[in-house]
Amino acid sequence: MVLFVDDDADLLEMIGLLFKQFKVSHVLARSLAAVQALGDQVQDITTAILDVNLGPGQPTGVAVAKWLQERNRRVRIHFLTGHAADHPLVVEASHNGEVMAKPFDTRKLVDIARNSP
Amino acid sequence: MRARRPDATQRTLALIAAVIVAVNALSLILDPRDRAYLPLFAVDVAHGALALAIAAIASRARRSWSPAVTDLLFVTLSAPFLIGLWLPQSYDLAQGTLHDPLLAHRFLLLGLAISAPSWRSGVITIVLFTVHAVALWAMLTGATSIPALEREPWLTAFYALIAGMLLYTRERRRGLEQKLAASEARTRTLSQVSRVLLALRDRANTPLQTLEVAIAMLEADERRDEALLTLMRRALARLVEIQQTLAVDEVRGVELDVPLDLEAALRDMLKEHDTKETRLP
């Protein structure tokens, strides 16, 4: 199952439609709190696609990745970001998974989701 | 709305005026010549009152003054010393108690050099009081002969030279400080503009991503309108191109907080703009 986390409701809805169109098993969340609320579903996540910046005052995508990896070591992490490559958060994220700059090619996102183990 | 406080120049002028009030008050209390010689008493009282008025005006100023107004007030504050220095020496000459008649001039020249609000008012007052000292020396030399007058007017001229050099170095340092402050303000503004652009770019990325996914989904549809999709793709590409021009952080070396907040960046920039006037010297 693919977990997609972004604080933008429109993108989240659009990704939901995309994954549905390509028959990708998925779950969507807007924040670390929403991911934590998934409960046992976290164990089924094989790939997590996380926005680096989840909004002012919110834990970042890196925090979500760390929380997930502490509970599910086999999860693959991919980050999305609008920041520059030398942004401190992006540098930190790059140590935890692949980082893709927004806006990226949708085909790549579909490939990642379909190739999720 | 909060009342504006006097700026640094006005506060300095108020302080100089307060010192002059104190000097005249002390003179009235401690100098027996003030009590014995009515014209001197009247001049010291008038000078003290003028200085008090200027101190009050400067400390209550609600608007910045132009350099010309500040210079005029400084010269106005200093000018009564021309009479206040002449009268006691005339009195001492008449009483036969003349000792070092240009001593006060020498102190005053140094005082002018360290307190003048500008190069212009500093030069004007130093020249004025040097000429005044020479005129007083000429008058006294014609009337009496005391050892202190033998080394004059060169000793006082030497003090005037020192005062000029002091004023020059002070003004030079002030000029450099102003340039440095202006440069720092420019750097701060550039940094904040860069932060706003960066936050804007960050904010624009997600809707662009939404459009990218939406177009990709339409392209996957068998009944798609190719012409329409081509136009949408082209428009998206142009938006991405504009968004990439906002990648200023890589060239400006902006110090980045995490995460970037557009509203906070805009707030900081507007706050900086509002307070810039009070921060600059």
What this model shows, in words?
The complex is a heterodimer of chains A (117) and B (281). Helix content of chain A is 38%, strand content 20%. Chain A is of the alpha/beta class and 117 residues long. Chain A has one domain (2-114): 3-Layer(aba) Sandwich (Rossmann fold), CATH 3.40.50. The relative contact order of chain A is 0.20. The model of chain A has no long low-confidence stretch (mean pLDDT 89). With 281 residues, chain B is an all-alpha fold. Chain B has twelve helices and no strands. Residues 277-281 of chain B have low confidence and may be disordered. The A-B interface holds A 6, 8, 10-11, 14-15, 17-18, 21, 51-56, 58, 60, 80-89, 102-107, 109 and B 198, 201-217, 220, 236, 240, 247, 249-250, 256, 258-261, 263-264.
Task: For the structure shown, list the relevant keywords.
heterodimer, A: 117 residues, alpha/beta, Rossmann fold, five-stranded parallel β-sheet, 5 strands, globular, B: 281 residues, mainly alpha, 0% strand, rod-shaped, disordered C terminus
Summary?
Chain A is α/β, with parallel strands linked by helices and 117 residues long. Helix content of chain A is 38%, strand content 20%. At the A-B interface, helix 1 and helix 5 of A face helix 9 of B.
- Distance separating the two termini of chain B: 23 Å
Spatial extent as radius of gyration of chain A: 13 Å
Catalogue the unreliable spans of chain A.
none
CATH class of chain A: Alpha Beta
**What's the CATH H-level superfamily name of chain A?**
Response regulator
Mean pLDDT of chain A: 89
How much strand of chain A?
A: 15-25%
| Total strand segments of chain A | 5
The succession of helices and strands of chain A, N to C, reads EHEHEHEHEH
Shape of chain B: rod-shaped
Secondary-structure element string of chain B? HHHHHHHHHHHH
Largest sheet of chain B: none
Number of helices of chain A: 5
First-last Cα distance of chain A: 8 Å
Overall 3D shape of chain A: globular
Strand order of the largest sheet of chain A: 2-1-3-4-5
Structural class of chain A: alpha/beta
The helicity of chain B comes to over 70%
Instruction: Please tell me how large the radius of gyration of chain B is.
Output: 33 Å
Number of strands of chain B: 0
